[in-house]
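Subject: design request, 84 residues
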């Protein structure tokens, strides 16, 4: 049972990390289209960039990224909890 849980955790981890990386790339590309030259660090603090905050589309995609990250941590916690 433990081996199956670890295998499932690894599979979920890889899938979630791939989805997160894809969404991070999308969010960064959108941010750079709105405000050229932004870095990944810059978009972690979007309040510093009024043009980003004004973009509903960018905020929507950034929200999806936040949701993916939250889901990833929740899934990991639940699976690791079942190992105890």
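Subject: RE: design request

Done. Sequence follows.
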């Amino acid at each position: 049972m433990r081996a199956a849980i670890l295998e499932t955790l690894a599979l979920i981890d890889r899938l979630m990390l791939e989805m997160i990386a894809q969404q991070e790339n999308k969010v960064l590309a959108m941010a750079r289209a709105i405000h050229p030259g932004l870095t990944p660090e810059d978009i972690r603090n979007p309040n510093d960039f009024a043009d980003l905050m004004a973009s509903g589309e960018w905020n929507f995609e950034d929200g999806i990224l936040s949701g993916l990250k939250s889901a990833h941590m929740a899934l990991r916690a639940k699976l690791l909890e079942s190992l105890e």
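Residues 20-81 form one domain.
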